Amino acid sequence: MSLIMGKSIISEGKTTTEAIQKGLKMIGLPRELVEIRVIEENKKIFFDILEPKVVKVEIKEIEAKKPEKLEIETTEEELQTAKLAIDKFLNEFLPEISKEAKYNVEIKDKCIYVSINGENLGNLIGYRGDALYALENILKAIANRKSENGVVVRLDIENYKEKRIATLEDLAKKKARVVEKTGKMITLEPMKAYERKIIHTILQDNPNVETRSIGQEPKRRIVITKK
Fold it and tell me: The domain containing residue 111 runs over which residues?
């Protein structure tokens, strides 16, 4: 027997192992992402030989999505200085990576937007954008060498971010429809923080489902449940 209670499962089996396995199957999460507590019960059958074991399987480290508010106070002089520094770096760095790569740096809405385009830039993007975000962090460090207020830098390569957002949006909506239809919780594969934020944002206005982040990095993932 298994009983769902909010974000936890009460599960019963002939042995503790059986009760845990049933609970994990019901909650749909691997063991490392839950807390398991054995509940004492006085139910005895046939001189204690077949006494059922009851466990509570509970999702741990639930983190509700938090809205972020960013107030940018960067001056125009800081932006121009940062733009020149980024331009100088890319002008020296990119030819070493790809002779065909072209870049553009522009200031818009008090942010610096950098776009890189060309052929065979997969190594600059990396798996799931790892290299892209690493390069973006380098550009942020360069931009903020002489800034007191903090310069925001946004980098995209071959429109990777736009394409990835579209992929995650499609994934989120498909999984949400499954949750709405079946009522069962769905756990997505581990994602980086920026990808989890995209999923949260896409589904935050869905009246029928809610999202939470669980687990520890680098295996932190999103759970979609029915409201």
Answer: 76-158
